[in-house]
């Protein structure tokens, strides 16, 4: 998938939020969009997800199966989670939409609220439904705009696992999150968004692993010393 010359502004007299952004969106890659408030991260995510048309430019080869979790889920929809997910499941062409909806609500700890109107749900439970709708169709492109916000610890961990599943299946996951530790142990491509543009940094593994070697590990220590990816902080 590729963005070509993307420009976005929200009104004729408004400033350009994105200006001439051209980017590859590689398949099978975890991508983190980062930058200051108001820099255009959510705007960029909406363009990538296809829920917002750019004012200028074009998007090529966007995967057919794509899903988006917005920063704010429209909880006022006149549905229960079960009905909402079944409806979307039918749109996705699922053979057993009710079963899939039930599995996802169970997975994210929202099964008890399957028949409660969305408008009556807590913010966190609503967010679980937002995440469940995005995973329904096993998307090749998953776009998550602060999707972890409001989720409890178990649901956050489940979402991490779901991201790994999408990536393992060759899918692309693009996310924004204000917690710098979010998904930090995985190789991630970083998009720095601001001043109308996007700067890309590569997908280096950024995790730090501290290991203790026994005195018999001289061979391993030698290998580590020769490995350009390893940085040895101290040997005692
Ligand atoms: N629907 C909209 N209508 C008008 N202006 C908008 C709209 N959405 C965003 N903007 C404006 O576009 C600019 C970029 O907003 P955007 O939400 O994309 O940034 P962001 O980097 O995601 O911000 P944050 O980190 O605060 O969520 C801001 O100036 C914002 O006010």
UniProtKB/TrEMBL annotation:
ABC transporter domain: residues covered: 1-221
Keywords per UniProt: ATP-binding, Nucleotide-binding, Transport
GO molecular function, one term: ATP binding
Pfam assignment, any one: ABC_tran
Domain of life: Bacteria
PROSITE patterns in alphabetical order: ABC_TRANSPORTER_2
Name assigned to this protein: ATP-binding cassette domain-containing protein
Species assigned in the record: Streptacidiphilus alkalitolerans
Source organism phylogeny: Bacteria, Bacillati, Actinomycetota, Actinomycetes, Kitasatosporales
